[in-house]
Amino acid sequence: MLPSPFQFERPSTIADAVRAVGDSGDGMFYAGGTELLLALKMRVIRADRLIDIKGIPGIDCIAVNDMNEIEIGARCTHRRISGDSVIREHVPALASLCAEVANIRVRNVGTIGGNLCFGEPHADPPTMLAALNARLVLEGSKGTREIHADDFIRSEMETVREPDELLRVIVFPRPAGPVTYRRFKHGERPSVNVAMAWSLNAGGSTIRSARVRVGALGSRPQPLTAVEGALRNVAVAEARRVIETALPAALDQLEVNADRHGGADYKRHLAGVLLLRNADEAIIARTSWLK
Q1: Contacts of 104 (CB under 8 A, 6+ apart)
Q2: Where is the FAD-binding PCMH-type domain (predicted)?
Q3: For residues 196, 202, 208 and 213, what is the CA-based torsion angle, rounded to 10 degrees?
Q4: Buried b (16+ CB within 10 A) or exposed e, 16-27
Q5: Which phi-psi region, left, alpha or beta, contains residue 137 (left: φ > 0; alpha: ψ -120 to 50)?
Q6: Which residues of the chain have pLDDT under 50?
């Protein structure tokens, strides 16, 4: 099946792209198109105009900024992120994640921004970026605004982004401890995924704070707040035992949708298993982080 007819435009600046897409909802930004073009061909969605943003400079850069934060341009492909030296040095778990997204064709052209904006519940990057306390910078006709990754996805296939807002860059603090990610896949998408980021004290012996996010269970990544609270100011050597104690109550609080990826109880169980594997990996990774 072919998509409905549409106009195709190639602006050279973000401002031109925002003007071209308009606020009526009949235009859509286009970069990799791995999800968008498939949906258009199936006529699940319709666009009167596609705004190609591949020619816009400055939205495919990766760098550490003056605030010691890592910036990833929204037009960066998964392949680009997986091989970037900054990401490999500071967040190797994110490099590994992007190296395993979907399949090689998707990784070569699919972008991190497109992945986030599509709002697919069974995706890898949203869970990791929420654990990293990332902020998403949007540019639209009303100006610039920042949305925390935790708040970006509103529900299944729906985000808080307005139709005329372009996701420009993703920003997060340079990790102050190990970052880990585990998933269980069903086909090319995760049935359950878990990301965890620790902030350690100067000597690396104590967890000052932790962020834990579980994805693919409901419509958006969810925090395990009970586990995060239990890990605060805990010795690294005690982390696994503390997680095991806090885990049952934390899992009970999760919103879990039974779907073709598994039943609710099964997916909760997987989330617990993956979190404990994250903990084991983080304990080992702590040594490398201190070097």
Answers
A1: none
A2: 1-177
A3: -10
A4: ebbebbeeeeeb
A5: beta
A6: none
